[in-house]
Write a structure and sequence with these properties.
159 residues; alpha/beta; five-stranded parallel beta sheet; 6 helices
């Protein structure tokens, strides 16, 4: 079970119920735009197929340097943004600019490395009403929802 606040969605299908719960709890569910990704090292392998699904759906991918390089190495076209700890406001400015649909931010639980960057990114997303995802299982369900509710387009056959 995943908490979405004080909302619940009922349906015969999990993804539709989850969609209803997300909408009811005020989460903006968008099937287009940009996803900013910043991942703890231990989450990169698990997150790769998830980010790839966003990319395959047509989302633009932006990421912090280490995450971005990892995604690029695995065939995902990624724009790399500087973090506050690197003396850059690029990632925070991108969030504030209004074109970002989702921010995926996981952190290294035990190490505490880059804690200030993650806190600043999560704070900026919250202040700008951007859907913030800190758990990869929630990202997985969101993608399932997006893939189910998004109308697919296909070419018209000449036959």
């Amino acid at each position: 079970m995943k908490s979405t606040g004080e909302a619940i969605g009922y349906d015969k299908k999990l993804h539709r119920a989850m969609y209803k719960a997300m909408i009811a709890s005020g989460i903006r569910v968008q099937n287009y735009g940009t996803v900013i990704v910043t991942l703890a090292d231990e989450d990169k392998e698990e997150a790769l197929p998830l980010v790839s699904r966003f990319y395959d759906m047509g989302f633009n991918i932006e990421a912090t340097s280490l995450t971005g390089e990892y995604l690029r190495q695995h065939g995902i076209r990624t724009r790399i943004l500087g973090k506050p700890s690197e003396g850059s406001a690029e990632i925070l400015n991108a969030i504030r600019a209004g074109y970002v649909s989702y921010v995926i931010n996981t952190r290294a639980i035990l190490s505490g490395i880059h804690y200030e960057d993650g806190a600043a990114i999560r704070n900026a997303a919250t202040q700008n009403n951007i859907t913030m995802l800190t758990s990869l299982d929630t990202v997985r369900v969101l993608l399932d929802v997006l893939e189910e509710v998004t109308i697919g387009m296909s070419a018209i056959d000449d036959e």
